Amino acid sequence: MSGQGKAQGLTRRDFLRAGAGAMGLGVTAALLQACAQPAAAPATPQVIKEVVTQVVEKQVTQVVEKPVEVTKVVEQTVEVTPTPAAVARDTTSPLKLLGWPYHEEVVKENVEIFMKQYNEKVEYQMIPGDYHPVIETKFIGGEKADVVYSEEDHLQRWYKAGWIIPIEDMIEAKQIKDELYPAGVETMSNVEGELMGLPYYSAFIVFFYNQALLEKGGIDTSQLDTWDQILEHCRKLKKDGICKYPYLPSWARVWYGLDWSIWADWFAEGANIFDKDFNPTFQDEPAFQKVLERYKTLFDEKLVPEDALAPGEGSLGWASGEFAFGSTHSYVMKDNNDPATSKAAGMTKNILMPGAKHESFRWVAQYFLCKNNTDTERAWNLMKFMGWKDKEGKYLVSKKWALNFGLGTPWKAVMEDPEVVASWSKWCDMDVMNKQGELTRSRPVDKALWYPEWGFFMMEQVQNYIQGSQSLSDLVKALKEKAEQLKAQYA
Amino acid sequence: MADEEGSRPLSGIRGKPAGKEKWLEYEERREALYAFLLILPALIIVFLVIAYPLLYSLWISVNNVDFVRQRWTFVGLKNYLDILPKPEFQMAGVRTVYYTVLSVVGSVGVGLLMALVLNESFKGRNVMRSLVLVPWATSGVVIGIIWRWIYDGETGVLNGVLYALGIIPDYVPWMSEGVRALTLTAVAHIWAAAPGSSLLLLAGLQAIPPSLYNAAKIDGAGAWQRFWRITLPWLRPMLLLAVILSTIGGLMTFDLIYVMTRGGPGSATTVFSWLGYTTTYQFFRFGEGTAILYVLTIACLILAYFYGKLLSREQMY
Q: Which residue among A321, A412, A419, B292 is least packed, with the fewest CB closer than 10 Å?
């Protein structure tokens, strides 16, 4: 009934052939073949014949006048990866940059500058919705792209799938590594240690409070060290009618929502979730369960908005000035303290993540160089411009993001730039921000091919638990089983 | 040429009917072939855009497809056998049925009311007939965004209106609870689908001969009797068609779920279409995901078959 067939290599062309064969229609197959894009040349193994001439000194007793010349034909398979110079270069087609929606007007402006500096043509596509699955589907479909945005949890997955290529061998690689914080290099490298990406931005989860509301509630702001203290403050503020919902979390089921928030809270409590071989360890980790129980308490006691689990921002957001505590991406602090957009402007104070260790989760969103690019040299120019320096050697894009939007970066020169430091000091406590920055860590498990799948599953299950539709033990069991199943599946 | 044409009928007159029949048969075949050749390009296009994807996805559903590592393993019916006993699949089935029943009853019921109103004579009727079609012609994503804002717990119009009228003492986070979120999503679906049903039913209403109503009035039939004894029986074929389309629309709903709930909170609004989507594109289990969506397709086919049977029976009436 369900005979296990033999696993075999699969290409897009195989797909088309299989489908056409099943239908038994030669016409359809021919049409589809005609429509198919030509297979990418670099990955195609080629059989070549190598003629080896060996000169053999014959060990014989008889006297010979000269060495015997033996000609031997050796057939072997080698994988030929053409260098940019070895293939016909495409210098006319526009380069394609794919990214998720975030201030598209700024990205377009940057692209315009690049096109002027390099006399280039670039097609920028903004991908709304589920960005990473859409990009993966595009890659599977054989779509050509040059540079793509991605979060670090897709680095190894896309590299192993053969969709992106390392930049380790680029001549600028050493200089790039020297100019980055070591943690940034590690995050942007694959398991094999090759540099894969250049930074779009980096950030981490921060915790903050509304000073005005805490003062109104008579809360001692020196007592914000642990979650036990925060919970008590939340209860008091709610009871006193100062806040309907004292805490604004980021619990929506999106990768930049619950997935990042809960990891930050796990790190803050010192929980270890997976070991170095990506085996789950959370089932024996009290801090892991403590965070989950706290989430449920916050939800059950209505200390968070009741629609915190729904898509969107959950409610008006921090800008309404109605929340006493909040936790989200570090750069959002800029908007939180912007009088033009926030009623809590000037009152939003960042503090270290409450918890036993005060650590937080950090990430680096990156630009990757696609394997199926138009022209590697041109695509690399675009990637360098967006993720490193412009043609004049300035950190044009990174610094613009840092100054105008509060986006961090692993470039030392940008983060230590006095102009950036002065700008950030207007909307956050830089000492606290720097200290929190030192207390951040990335997720090693991001380098597992299957992490995005586990993360998506985890968010659903955690939401079910928070809502009370499953017990904590069932949740832990389900998460463990999913991790083991995925690990086995991708083994 | 003229001789040829003239000779043909003669053969029949001279007592060779078999020859004439053969000739007619040949002509018919030739015409059929000609007609077939004319529609062949369209057939090929239809095959490529409908039959090919269907067969292709059927093929995927009997394979274990790992696109990330580019592996393809034939597993027969394993994907189907794996998904059927899973609690998440069964729960998604229950939610799909709940959502579909609500959508069908709501969209056909409201559509019928709208059609009855629009069938009456009143000032601005033509403008109204055009306006009611706007939701039906609006894309699902836009409808989802509109209704998400309407239901918003803090700034939504629904809370504003109910609070102003004194119906609720405080703002309600409408989408925070599973069954309520699914029900409210179905309401958004009804809002979008009812105009389509009303259009069909209005066409049905206009086909009813006015003489029937006149005769009924003379016989002393009241409004309810006229509706029950004349309108409804005459509308049945159109009602069935509206029910078929609403059922398929309800079963296949994806855009509203994607925009309004994303299957949550938790998995509380995960219907078949969302489960199939996440299994396929979030978990990249193309085999299982396609199998889930094929179950949905088969359910639609079975329902369409039974509805079709009912429809043909009604047409005999």
A: A419
Residue B66 confidence (pLDDT) = 82
CATH number, span A203-362+441-490: 3.40.190.10
- Whether residue A135 contacts residue A148, with contact meaning beta carbons closer than 8 Å, is answered with yes
CA B192 from centroid of its chain's CA atoms:
13
Tens of pLDDT along B157-216?
999 999 999 999 988 989 988 899 999 999 999 999 999 999 999 999 999 999 999 999
| Cβ within 8 Å of residue A442, ≥6 positions away | A152, A183, A186, A187, A361, A362, A363, A364
Instruction: Report CA-CA distances (Å) from A11 to A170, A309, B281.
Output: 28, 39, 18
Q: Is the pLDDT of residue A6 over 80?
A: no
A381 near A171, Cβ under 8 Å?
A: no
A12: closest CA among A35, A24, A28, A27? A35
Q: Which chain B residue has the Cα nearest residue A489?
A: B66
Q: Strand pairing partners for A329?
A: A205
How many independent structural domains does chain B possess? 2
Return the closest-CA partner of residue A255 out of A108, A363, A353, A417. A363
Mean pLDDT over each residue of chain A, to the nearest integer? 84
Closest Cα in chain A, distance from residue B59 (Å):
7
Alpha carbons B68 and B65: distance in angstroms, whole number? 9
Q: How far is it, in rounded angstroms, from Cα A9 to Cα A399?
A: 44
Residue B315's pLDDT is what? 53
How does pLDDT run across A440-490, given as a tens digit for each residue?
A: 999 999 999 899 889 999 999 999 999 999 999 999 999 999 999 999 988
Q: How many Cβ atoms sit within 10 Å of the Cβ of residue B212?
A: 14
- Average pLDDT value for residue range A216-239: 96
Does residue A59 register a pLDDT over 90?
Answer: no
Q: What is the pTM (predicted TM-score) of this model?
A: 0.78
Measured between alpha carbons, how far is A392 from A262 in angstroms, rounded to an integer? 41
DSSP 8-state secondary structure symbol assigned to residue B177? S
Same domain for B111 and B14: no
Per-residue pLDDT, A34: 34
Condensed to tens digits (0 to 9), the pLDDT of residues B23-60 reads: 888 888 999 999 999 999 999 999 999 999 999 999 99
Hey, what CATH topology would domain A89-202+364-429 get?
D-Maltodextrin-Binding Protein; domain 2 (3.40.190)
| C-alpha atoms less than 13 angstroms from C-alpha of A122 in its C-beta half-sphere | 31
Q: Which residue matches tokens 């619990």?
A: A251
Answer yes or no: do B262 and A253 touch at CB < 8 A: yes
Distance, in angstroms, between A10 CA and closest chain B CA? 5
Q: pLDDT by residue (tens digit) across B208-257? A: 999 999 999 999 999 999 999 999 999 988 998 999 999 999 999 999 99
ipTM for the complex shown: 0.73
Instruction: Give me the total of CB pairs closer than 8 Å, taking one residue from chain A and one from chain B.
Output: 153
Chain A interface mutation, best of B79, B154, B279, highest count of A Cβ atoms under 10 Å: B154
Angle, alpha carbons A296-A300-A302 (nearest 5°):
120
B204 and B118, same structural domain? yes
**Substitution target from B158, B185, B262, B290 for chain A, most A beta carbons within 10 A:** B262
CB contact under 8 A, B44 and A27: yes
Same domain, B160 and B87: yes
8 Å CB contact between B307 and B240: yes
Q: How far apart are the first and last CA of chain B?
A: 52
